[in-house]
Amino acid sequence: MSKEKSEGKELKKALLSKKENAFLKMKSEDIKKCDKFCEGYKAFLDAAKTEREAVEYTIKLIEDNGFVEYKPGMKLKAGDKIYRNNRGKAVMMAVIGKEDIKKGVRLCAAHIDSPRLDLKQCPLYEDTEMALFKTHYYGGIKKYQWAVSPLALHGVIVKADGSKVKVTIGEDEDDPVFCVNDLLPHLAGDQMKRNLAQGIKGEELNIVIGSRPFKEDGLSDAVKLNIMQILNEKYGIVEDDFLSAELEAVPAFKAKDIGFDRSMIGAYGHDDRVCAYTALMAAVKCSNPKHTAVTVLTDKEETGSDGNTGLQSAYLKYFIADLAAEFGAEGREVLSNSQCMSADVNAAFDPTFPDVMDKRNCAFINYGVVVTKFTGARGKSGTSDASAEFVGKIRSLLDENKVIWQTGELGKVDMGGGGTVAAYIANLNVDTIDVGVPVLSMHAPFETVSKIDVYQTYKAFEAFIK
Ligand code: MN
Ligand code: MN
Predict the structure, then answer these.
(1) C-alpha dist (Å) from residue 11 to 1, 2, 360
(2) What is the distance in A from the centroid of ligand 2 to the CA of 271?
(3) 182 Cα–ligand 1 center, Å
(4) Which CATH number describes the domain made up of 18-114+268-465?
(5) Most buried among 159, 189, 310, 407, by the most CB within 10 A?
(6) Å from CA of 140 to ligand 2 middle
(7) What is the DSSP string of 205-262?
């Protein structure tokens, strides 16, 4: 009887898969490395809350690490490190590999835009002696989450003479912050009957920016004028300059550890700066890779990847074609032999909301980097669906490099769904698969990830491009 029992245990070990919390499998020195790595990640989150700031941060970091701006015809050779800045909102970098570029590149693509409130082009107005900004939200948000929480303003204003003013206000300890107001419960009887999606409506996401009037009798719009005077003194702008501005309201708080055990990080913009940072650090550490390692940090994923800084545009294809040309190859040949990790977050199981997940197929925090074969919605619509062969290659690669990973589908069938840049890269005839960090409260102003998963994701990219 006892012999049979142990045979069963042996057989179980040999035949059935075992899922386990990564913490249990990691050595304490690796946990230390992981915690240290995440300190760098938190600094990145605080310094780069918009795509422009992420590009700036990236270029400074990679230039300090030997990357130079790519100029066509610069005679590239193995080991060279180059980058191209796309309009200050997306950046591509490459470490030239030892193999012939015709054999393809290893591509990691993450996005550096996150959901937020964008100012409209005529944002400034006064109503009943309060000055406010009108906004149009960017990306998929639950609008009620963005009210009654401190906001900072980031972005640029291009003045009539073409000069550009950079704006970052609300981040320093003594900076003022801004906010969207909500109704008091005492008077919210009607509002409380709205559904959650309508709790705060799009045109109610108005940001309060001031309440003191310009001191002069009989003046209309005196609060607005007073604010405009302050803005003119601080930034040298007039109201019409908002027409050519990109100003983004983002949560004003900094990244923080979550939990008594400090196992998680709460912050704005994990989606997808967590994959951007891990891919970036892997690129920085990459030297003399076998295949040329290309890392793309893109814009506009949250609005569908359109536009010339989004990955549906040709900018990546052109970059690869330019690299190919340096070695007398064709871009299409390089792309057709390339492999891509579409580096984006996935949803983590939340015990408070178990009903939306298929527990047998979803990702869990602390179970490592999540590999997602397909995304999409309603019968996998919109997915690129990595082939079994390619998943097999990635699986072996991760196991060989002792990366702790899990598979994860974004929610139950027909519960909703979502996509990433994977499909747009796969459309270039590149083998592509989604790889990233599981996130709780995705697209909320304060999202949560596990430190272990962040580190395992870094290790996955490192293994992929080495
Ligand atoms: Mn994302
Ligand atoms: Mn997203």
Answers:
(1) 15, 14, 21
(2) 5
(3) 28
(4) 3.40.630.10
(5) 310
(6) 7
(7) -PEEEE-PPPS-TT-TTHHHHHHHHHHHHHH---GGGGGGEEEEEEE-PPPEEESTT-
Does domain 116-251 sit in CATH 3.40.50.720?
no
> pLDDT (tens digit, 9 = 90+) per residue, 186-235?
999 999 999 999 999 999 999 999 999 999 999 999 999 999 999 999 99
DSSP 8-state class, residue 465: H
Counting ligands in written order, the one closest to the CA of 344 is 1
**Residue 4 pLDDT:** 59
Rounded Cα distance, 230 and 250, in Å: 21
End-to-end CA distance of the chain: 50
- Whether 1 has a pLDDT exceeding 90, the answer reads no
Residues less than 5 Å from ion ligand 2, measured at CB: 271
Find the 1 Cα to ligand 2 centroid distance in Å: 53
86 CA to centre of ligand 2 in angstroms = 21
Q: What is the Å distance from ligand 2's center to 80 Cα? A: 33
Indicate the domain borders of the chain.
Answer: 18-114+268-465, 116-251
Residues 295-331 pLDDT 10s: 999 999 999 999 999 999 999 999 999 999 999 999 9
The angle subtended at Cα 158 by Cα 156 and Cα 164, nearest 5°, is 70
What φ, ψ does residue 273 adopt, rounded to 5°? -65, -15
Given a contact cutoff of 8 angstroms between Cβ atoms, the answer to whether 437 and 369 are in contact is yes
- Say how many Å lie between the CA of residue 114 and the centre of ligand 2: 7
Q: What's residue 3's pLDDT?
A: 57
What Å distances lie between residue 40 and 74, 320, 385, CA to CA? 33, 30, 33
C-alpha 254 to ligand 1 mean position (Å): 20
What is the Å distance from ligand 1's center to 56 Cα?
20
Cα-to-centroid distance, 420 and ligand 1 (Å): 6
- CA nearest neighbour of 92 among 319, 284, 296, 293: 296
